[in-house]
Amino acid sequence: MVNRKELDAEGSPGARFGQRLRMLRDERGWTQDELAVRMGCSGTHISAVETGRRRPTPRFAASADKAFGTGAQLERLGRAVWNTAILEGFPEFVAHEVRATEIRLFELGIIPGLLQTPEYAAAITTGALRRGSITEQQAEERLTLLAQRQASLDRTPAPLVYAVLDESCIRRVVGGPRIMAAPAGSALAFADVQPLLTAYHQLQAEALSQAASVAVFEQARKGTP
To answer: Fewest beta carbons less than 10 Å away: which of 41, 98, 110, 130?
Structure first.
């Protein structure tokens, strides 16, 4: 038998959807290709949804329900996937992040999540909530995931974290002076790609010295130009 990836039903909504899809397929004795024919897609697509590598769309869920004769069962299960505020592919990124030994960051305009204080993160999320771009449930989901990511860095051995931030990250006021004056949150880690790594090293070479960077942070916290 071909090795099959174990599915985590307690993981993301996408993982739960994938597990249910596989269970329904197995109950009927269909291969991924056979289900794909019934749904008008490819076996590769079925595999990607089952293993959580691709999110199911409403159209996919409706097509699967029709193929299985399950009414709107998968459509209902899929709502948790479609209503999430987490970008597609990000849960997979986080899975690598919690195992990383070294994390390199470059950010413009906003302090990276792993360095954010709870108050800073809450201010950003509240802004998105007020604009109507996310729901209260999605706001809570974002903050919970960020807290889990930051907590995962408190491990032995701790990952090495290298962060290059554009000055706009600390000049842009988020949530008010009091929040901006607070020390940065926990430090962090992540895998790189060679072209990005080359650019990253160039940024390091051109960045301010450690002492000069600390001076800029202190000035920003005090509200001086």
So the answer is: 130
